[in-house]
């Protein structure tokens, strides 16, 4: 590498605009575009030769000039050696944990196919950084999803966490996150160059964002796998702050979302390997401070063994990702309508299918129901509340179709929105949908029409609350006062699904 090129490469450090910092690692190889050298213009380099002092002269006191000459030659030798080790063709001399495909013996049976898949998928993964008024905001990964040859522009899909300026609560259903669409976004390309990312759109409910980027060379657009199965082998891919590819092996874990999480998440199960039976070098092994699993891969991809994208890492929790069955519909809606609408039902749910088997058997025994979504929360003043849907009721069908999981529900909501827009409908309109609900307390099944909003905003589910007044407590006489929570004219105190289950379990056993 020439001095001019070397200086240009090594000057890439953190800037107020959020450009990535390449220190303290030395950049390996020439990241700048180069042209092929004609054979007749090629000048062979001098071979690398290690200096040494012959035994008969190896006495520093008697031969100080020999030692000085050796030291000078050794410095030049090390410099030349380091330049060669700086090439990408040689193993990096960095204190990084080796990737799982290199040092995890339990992956030997899939190593060949997985390596091919990972290297193919890596071509579509880049990194982005954001800043506001020169102050860094966030860093994440992203995926190319479109490329236009004529305009030399590509579209990047990433997480909206890149431009999230405030995250005041862990409960996503409160919808209080704030986003700064005027953030300066820098896209870090695979060749070491950077480009400006131009904001196009973000969808707060799914936490997705789209940016347009000017690039001179064609980019790799991945394919999606929209049919993921529980237990399926997958790899989570991302790039660290030095653009080094990081990978983590795991499997798809299909769980119910937590009460603070959106419905569309699936989960990544990773069994951390703390000790390996075939240890090589201590500095190449994972440890608490240097593990591939600790890479900040928010916005990176989850891929299958064919190299297809199975989801986008969206780290509301460490293990969560948005599956491609949802991504595919979101990208399709955005490409066609430049928005991603969904139906706001005013409720959130958990799936019977994904509960503990003992719990499933109990529901089946008590209600003769084996599938459906259990209502976990009903938003106050919503149409669902006015129609009498309560905590613990079960939604069995959506527009006549059986529903098993919350991810299936999200696909149906997105599909219904696409039909609405295809038919000339608009955002922020109300439409009716048909649901079949089983009221567990009354043991009554009803088909009802629910009026819902078509919106591309984040759905907010507001809990019904009531104030505790000053009359609650103990008077000076020491006699307890009446608690307003006991007043039958006021709303009942909020119940959780756990308390509801416990209450009805005790009731069933007593009868």
Structural notes for this entry:
Residues 1-24 are annotated as: Disordered. Pfam families: Trypsin_2. The structure is a single chain. The chain is α+β, with helices and mostly antiparallel strands and 511 residues long. The protein has 3 domains: 3-85, no CATH class; 96-338, Thrombin, subunit H (Beta Barrel), CATH 2.40.10; 342-464, PDZ domain (Pdz3 Domain, Roll). It is 21% helix and 26% strand. The chain is built from 9 helices and 21 strands. Strands 15, 16, 17, 18, 19, 20 and 21 form a 7-stranded antiparallel sheet that branches. A 6-stranded antiparallel barrel has the order 1-2-3-8-7-6. Strands 9-10-11-14-13-12 form a 6-stranded antiparallel β-barrel. Residues 1-34, 274-294 and 472-495 have low confidence and may be disordered.
Helix content: 10-25%
What's the number of domains? 3
Count of individual beta strands = 21
CATH class assignment of the largest domain: Mainly Beta
Strand share of the residues?
25-35%
> How would you describe the shape?
elongated
pLDDT average, as an integer?
A: 80
Terminus-to-terminus distance: 83 Å
Q: Give me the number of helical elements.
A: 9
- List the secondary-structure elements in sequence, H or E: HHHHEEEEEEEEEEEEEEHEEHEHEEHEEH
Structural class based on helices, strands and sheet pairing: alpha+beta
